[in-house]
Amino acid sequence: MDPVRRTAELLDRVRAALRGRTVAEPGLPYVASREPGGAGSVQERIDLFRRKFEALGGTFLAGPAERVIPGLGELLRVEGVTALFFPEEDPASRQVADDLVPFGPFLLASPGDVVQAEPPVSAGIQSAEFAIAESGTIVQTSRGGKSLLPGLASDVHVALLAPDRFLNGMEDCLEALSADPPRNISLITGPSRTGDIELTLTVGVHGPRRVIAVLPLPAGHV
Amino acid sequence: MPKHSIYKPSGFFRNSEKALADRTLQVALSRTTKTFLERRAAAVAEYPRFEGARERASRIRQEALDNLDAHLARFITEARNLGAVVHAARDGSEAREIAVRIAREEGVSLAVKSKSMVAEEVALNDALEAAGIEVVETDLGEYIIQLAGEAPSHLIAPAIHKTREEVSRLFEEKLGEPYTEEIPALTRIARRRLRDKFFSAQMGISGANFLCADTGSVVLVTNEGNGRMVTTLPRVHLVITGIDKVIPRLADLPVLMSLLSRSATGQALSSYVSVLTGAKRPGDAEGPERLHIILLDNGRTGILQGKYREILKCIRCGACLNVCPVFQSVGGHAYGWVYHGPVGSVLTPLLLGLPESSPLPDASTLCGACEEVCPVKIPLPGMLVELRADGRAQGLKSPAEVLGMKAFASVMSRAGILEAFQRMAGVVSQLLFKERKVEWLPFQLSGWTERRDFPAPAPQPFRKLWKKQRGIRPWTR
Predict the structure, then answer these.
(1) Which residues on chain A are in Cβ contact (under 8 Å) with B56?
(2) What φ, ψ does residue B273 adopt, rounded to 5°?
(3) B218 phi and psi, to 5 degrees?
(4) pLDDT in tens, A142-165
(5) Do A7 and B277 touch (CB under 8 A)?
(6) Under 8 Å between Cβ of A139 and A130
(7) Model confidence band, residue A27 (pLDDT cutoffs 50, 70, 90)
(8) φ, ψ for residue B291 (rounded to 5)?
(9) Among A88, B66, B136, B380, which one has the highest count of C-beta atoms within 10 angstroms of its own C-beta?
(10) Does a structural domain hold residue A190?
(11) Does A179 touch chain B (CB under 8 A)?
């Protein structure tokens, strides 16, 4: 039987089940109200994001490139990273990868090098769509043909943020994307983790074991 | 029922005896249920808006069910407009048949799977494997129990019944890996073993935590990141989910997520929330070229019609399991099917029928803790009582039990007779039970004393003491 006919039959069964329905209370359909409050200024949102993100074990680096890149290089070396990869269509992440090479040894890899059974220890670098302050969440989407691989298949995920992309809550993020949702909206809150063996928290199960957020600021910014 | 399951819901009491005698299981349960409760309590304590969110979430889920026809129709239309192929399955048999046909038509020989209770409900893996398709579970807990040939024992921690030592011996035996009791090392083994599967599978299989009617989106929540890989890397994505997962709007997601993560794992938000809207589009870097969504009925329309509709509000957080003293003692396998704990004791009889699962509504102390923690305010204890009454109406209780309960009700509803019984029991108790415990009871009452002593009736019942303290005459009602 074809899917259209089967779904039509399903809907008939649902309608029959609801025949003679009594609405739970007047005024439905119920629309969830927005939570009041939230951080006001951009700086407040950035500060709140930083607190929440660091509480999840993330590392937040903000400052001019000449200060942030060496620090980032050091962190990646400590993690044993030997390969850097980034979406071809994301010039900001390519720039960061290029700038990191002298602080290596790092090789610039293509996503194809990482998509294998025994890949090198890698850092995936990409520009984030949004950062959500309330939960310390990084938002990546497939909008505009952006690749999701850096935050998916790497050992260390480096997310590049911009001051105007910090939002208060998930509500703001979904509102911004709901008019024409991209195929994939990924809300990433901390590293890949599991508690499946005796509820003991372990990071880096399938996705990145470490997440680093980088907020580049103009030269001379303190 | 998965072929590897050796338990049946009808055998709950026998299953429980085995569970209580299993020392390894008892160690595993004691290590984990306490941690679950502590994490949830901490997460709720630091979120003062939790109670308000419960009320809102309950209303959202109720609205979704009261108007499920409209919301489901909208979801189907929106998903199809975005290139998804939406299927409907009346029961498990139809769901398996559809999934196998999809796999064959798409030329699938290897599928990677993210945890799905609905897939367990219809025994999807067994059907695909019978059709020659390799299915690899990728959630760490599911991977462990797949290797062990067992069924999940918890909604969100399927291998909760296994200790690290057991997991290590399993990896040693099945994968040839060296023995280690280091949990991070065990996790790295799974990462290494599964990585190639992710990149070589032709199909990814997942469930859905929510289906958003207004956008046709499938929402998937994981902590490990396997869900993202399963739904991004293979060229086909198969979603199998119940019709009850529909929510009216994408905008409803934040409040539901604020409760799901806190109630399930004590996190403010799970590590990965993926909102998946349609198949791969022109210009997309990755994503499945084909998206199939199987909407499963399997008795849900029957539940929707009746007095148990609210059970379909469940968002599968597992909080009611962790807080239940029965689950804490016997674990998930004792319930004999896919759904465990209080929610399982309601859902299983409704999906399989009471004759198949008549002991489950009795697998509760009716303490009410499950209702207190439920993030969508499902009145679970009331439903369990109602199901017990249904069991009696269907002739599933023994004549002795019916007679006993009638006698009990008759005494309890007459204050004078109750007091007379209590006074008599007090006198008899003083004569017969000097050590203040009853070690043996006859006939149907023997269940109370088989494994523990029953407390002897107090020499002076509470009612008598109360009246004495208040200066009320003894036989005044």
Answers:
(1) 32-33
(2) -115, 115
(3) -105, 125
(4) 998 989 999 998 999 999 999 999
(5) no
(6) yes
(7) very low
(8) -120, 120
(9) B380
(10) yes
(11) no
CA distance B242 to chain A (A): 12
Reported pTM: 0.91
Cβ distance B100 to B192 under 8 Å?
no
Q: Rounded to a whole number, what is the largest CA-CA distance in chain B?
A: 87
A127 touches B: beta carbon within 8 Å: no
Q: How many structural domains comprise chain A?
A: 1
Check CB contact under 8 Å for B35 and A199: yes
Of A11, A115, A116, the CB nearest to B73: A11
Say whether pLDDT at A16 is over 90: yes
Tokens 């680096």 sit at which residue? A61
B87·A204 Cβ contact <8 A: no
Measured distance CA(A183)–CA(A191) in Å, rounded: 23
**For testing the chain B interface, which of A48, A197, A199 should be mutated: the one with the most B CBs within 10 Å?**
A197
What number is the average pLDDT over the span B25-53? Answer: 89
- Catalogue all structural domains in chain B, each as residue range(s) with its CATH number: 9-301 (3.40.50.10420), 401-470 (no CATH)
In degrees and rounded to multiples of 5, residue B50 shows phi and psi of -60, -45
- Measured between CA atoms, the residue of chain A closest to residue B304 is A17
Quote the domain boundaries for residue A148. Answer: 39-216
**Residue A31 confidence class, pLDDT cut points 50, 70, 90:** low
Chain B residue nearest residue A52, CA to CA: B268
Give the pairing type, strands A122-127 and A83-85.
parallel
Dump pLDDT digits (tens) for B370-414. 999 999 999 999 999 999 999 999 998 888 888 888 888 898 888
State yes or no: ipTM above 0.85.
yes
User: What phi-psi label fits residue B285: left (phi over 0), alpha (psi between -120 and 50 degrees) or beta?
Assistant: alpha
Q: Answer whether A117 sits within 8 Å of B229, measured CB to CB.
A: no
Q: Verify whether the Cβ–Cβ distance B301 to A13 is below 8 Å.
A: yes
Amino acid at A78: V
pLDDT at residue A69, rounded to an integer: 93
Residue A195 lies in a domain: yes
Cβ neighbours of A174 in B, within 8 Å: 250-251, 253-254, 275
- CATH code for the domain in which residue A109 is found: 3.40.50.10420
Q: Which residues of A touch B313 (CB under 8 A)?
A: none
